[in-house]
Design brief:
Chain lengths: ~475, ~290
């Protein structure tokens, strides 16, 4: 039987009422609409109008104007608990200043899928934005004016929520040729005027690094990768969404092409760079949990080698095998790395919450070679430091750190260090690099923190990895 | 030390100064002249002096381009940058048109050396010849002082005054370049080529640098970090050149020809000038370091 399509004024409110959401309920959202998301704000407006309070909101991440909507929902008491992989301003300031009543739980993408699938964090109502539905109620993210590509994070929510509300702005008159979320996994379809701003959905935040220093780091990273022996026929590769990571991916592609190397798969967030790699035959398959740009969204619909991957298959540590665990090479960005090689990708050196755990801790643990690429200095602040502000990825899962001022190999990877030395790649002890940087900048002083814990960083298996304590910050306005 | 590449770094930008040594340039030019606005000249001077005193530039050779001797800044520039007793940079003097310009700078430097109790002649110059008048007097300039370490060509002013074109295919600079190379050869000093200002035009840079190397320049200045790797590549002797040079030296040394002054390699006579050329190739940056 076809799923009921609700349209017009009051449709979303009617769907929420029908979902049975009540005081203290648990709801979820994905972040595939990225900076263009208009769904989160619409849903919270209706929940507030219904007078439902004390809600736990579980996000795969939250960014853009959705952060304002969530902050408002916190301030007006609709939301009292937040679970997410990351946050941006002005929600970040609300978290840091203790406005969210309960500590925010930060999970990795794989850890979130595990927590949902295991029932650790149940979902009463999943609000799943989709860019298209057909009359039967089948849905995807690749058709319609607000297409965003893969529905990788939302699929886990939809599979395990008690009630699924699919929200779209496009109903196809023909059956969808590609279905991500079948009608039998959806309780209601709500048709709204717009789910998002297409320009902000499909671009904006991802930029290929373009500064000369970024190119120095990327060239050095490529040198290390090829010297390490990790790049070979059939290898699995992923690069994070940071600008230098993307530049490394592009340079790796060029070198693979020159050397005639053909990889097995490339995975993670799909970008134009990754799409071009499979189109050029450099990899057989692209596993896509999130499409970062419109070219990736279109490719997912059209290229049989470009496959949608849900967050559980991507990185759920409870599964015997994931794409993350099959990786040979993972390239990560970071805000800072410390002398134990622990990585912070969530808080800035000024203590603000500016990033996300994302899939970095998942892939770092799974990959054969995990490389962090970052500039050793950002402005006058050293990014290689004695102790990171927040541990997101434990140091034992990192193999090598590449900066413009030196390549540091984790002490447990002596054979890698020897291999690099044989190839003429010089390395430096990470403690010596920190000394050198502090010699330039002076010893950095951390932002004073209060006692109150406002955030908990979970390991991918659910243990407490670190906590974030409140700071005094001036809220930023968007 | 001969440098394949000299990277310009604005003297008023601490961020760029701290990064300058990371791009692989053999030499770094801390600039007090054209890249620094008049209102920032004094700050830049102090910043450069402090960087020379305390900052680690690795293996790179250091040079400071002072302001032209036609300005009111150059004397204080020299006093500031020669303040540090531990690190004496090469002094790049812009717009040198006559031996008298060199003499003026040399007189002040001698006074600074005396006052600091330094050995006379420690401070060396790199003269920039960048006008038609300077080109005409190239030999008298480069032989005017024992402080002269090297000479550099500056094409922008030269083109402005002569109407010559800067397109890579143009041969309009060949005369000036050749004249400078000849003067430097006669004075047995190194000679560096002008910058290629279109920093995104890497093919233009490649052609321009290749032409300069053919004419006889030892290296070239860079206005952008992205230019360094290509300049280094062009001014690093090729495998073929290295192999030839090694065969020459092996033959000359191995046959005991040093005493006879002549040997033969693959049917070619090897005498002192050829050996000198071979030794120069093997001593080039990028070869001697195994690069």
């Amino acid at each position: 039987m076809a799923v009921e399509h609700l349209r017009g004024d009051g449709a979303l409110r009617k769907a929420i009422e029908a979902s049975g959401l009540s005081e203290g309920g648990r709801i979820s959202f994905h972040h595939h609409l990225r900076y263009g998301d208009r769904v989160v704000a619409q849903v919270f407006r209706e929940i507030r109008a219904l007078g439902v309070r004390n809600v736990t909101a579980n996000f795969s991440s939250v960014m853009g104007s959705a952060c304002s909507a969530v902050r408002d929902a916190v301030v007006n008491g609709t939301v009292t608990r937040i679970e997410t992989t990351g946050s941006k301003s002005p929600l970040s300031e609300a978290i840091l200043t203790g406005q969210v009543p309960e500590p925010v739980v930060f999970r990795t993408h794989g850890g979130r899928a595990r927590a949902i699938e295991s029932g650790e964090t149940p979902i009463d109502v999943a609000f799943v934005a989709v860019s298209a539905v057909d009359r039967a109620g089948n849905a995807n993210g690749t058709d319609g004016p607000s297409r965003f590509g893969s529905l990788g994070y939302g699929l886990v929510d939809a599979r395990h929520a008690n009630h699924v509300v699919a929200i779209t702005d496009y109903v196809s008159s023909k059956p969808l040729s590609r279905v991500s979320l079948p009608a039998d996994g959806i309780d209601q379809v709500v048709v709204v005027d717009s789910i998002g701003d297409s320009a902000s959905i499909s671009g904006g935040s991802l930029r290929l690094a373009n500064r000369p220093m970024d190119r120095v780091i990327a060239r050095r990273a490529v040198e290390v990768l090829f010297a390490s022996g990790a790049i070979h026929d059939g290898f699995g590769f992923q690069a994070g969404s940071g600008g230098v990571s993307l530049l490394v991916a592009r340079m790796v592609a060029e070198r693979m092409s020159d050397l005639g190397i053909k990889g097995g798969f490339i995975s993670g967030g799909a970008t134009e760079t990754a799409v071009r790699m499979i189109e050029a035959g450099l990899f057989e398959t692209l596993y896509d949990v999130q499409s970062f740009d419109d070219m990736a969204a279109q490719s997912l619909a059209a290229n049989k080698n470009h496959l949608e991957m849900d967050a559980s298959r991507y990185a759920n540590p409870d599964r015997a095998e994931t794409i993350a665990s099959r990786l040979d090479v993972m390239i990560l960005s970071a805000t800072e790395v410390d002398t134990s090689f622990a990585v912070n990708s969530l808080t800035g050196t000024d203590g603000r919450i500016i990033g996300a755990l994302g899939g970095a801790p998942d892939t770092a643990e799974g990959a054969g070679l995990t490389m962090v690429v970052l500039p050793a200095l950002r402005g006058r602040v050293p990014t290689i430091c004695r102790t990171v502000d927040t541990v997101c990825t434990p140091g034992e899962h990192v193999d090598v750190v590449v900066t413009e001022r030196g390549v540091c190999v984790h002490p447990r990877r002596d054979e890698l260090r020897a291999r690099l030395a044989e190839a003429g790649v010089q390395t430096v002890e990470i403690g010596d690099l920190v000394d050198r940087l502090y010699g330039i900048t002076g010893e950095p002083v951390r932002v004073p923190r209060k006692d109150r814990v406002v955030g908990v960083v979970e390991s991918r298996r659910g243990a407490v990895l670190d906590t974030i304590r409140a700071v005094e910050v001036e809220p930023e306005t968007n | 030390m001969t440098c394949r590449s000299w990277l310009y770094c604005p003297g008023n930008d601490p961020g760029k100064i701290t990064q300058a040594a990371l791009y692989g340039a053999d030499g770094i030019i801390l600039d007090l002249e054209d890249s620094v606005a008049a209102e920032e000249k004094l700050d830049a001077r102090e910043l450069v002096a402090e960087a020379l005193r305390s900052f680690d530039f690795g293996e790179a050779q250091l040079c400071v381009r002072i302001n032209s001797l036609e300005t009111t800044w150059w004397e204080e520039d020299l006093r500031a940058i020669l303040r540090s007793p531990d690190r004496v940079p090469l002094v790049r003097i812009p717009k040198v048109e006559s031996p008298e310009t060199v003499a003026s700078a040399a007189a002040l430097v001698a006074e600074i050396e005396r006052a600091a109790g330094r050995q006379p002649g420690t401070v060396r110059f790199q003269c920039i010849v960048e006008t038609p008048r300077g080109v005409e007097k190239a030999y008298s300039i480069v032989t005017s002082s024992s402080r002269i370490d090297s000479v550099s060509f500056g094409a922008e002013d030269y083109c402005a005054q002569t109407g010559a074109s800067r397109s890579p295919a143009a041969k309009a600079l060949d005369f000036a370049r050749s004249r400078l190379v000849n003067a430097a050869g006669a004075a047995a000093i190194t000679v560096y080529d002008t910058v290629w200002g279109a920093f995104r035009d890497m093919e233009g840079l490649r052609d321009d640098a290749k032409r300069a190397r053919e004419i006889g320049f030892d290296g070239k200045s860079a206005v952008h970090p992205d230019q360094v790797a290509l300049i280094n590549e062009i001014f690093t002797p090729s495998e073929q050149e290295r192999s030839w040079a090694k065969r020459v030296i092996d033959a000359f040394d191995g046959e005991g020809a040093g005493s006879r002054g002549v040997a033969a390699v693959e049917g070619q006579m090897i005498d002192a000038p050829v050996v000198a050329r071979a030794r120069r190739i093997l001593a080039s940056p990028g070869v001697r370091d195994g690069g």
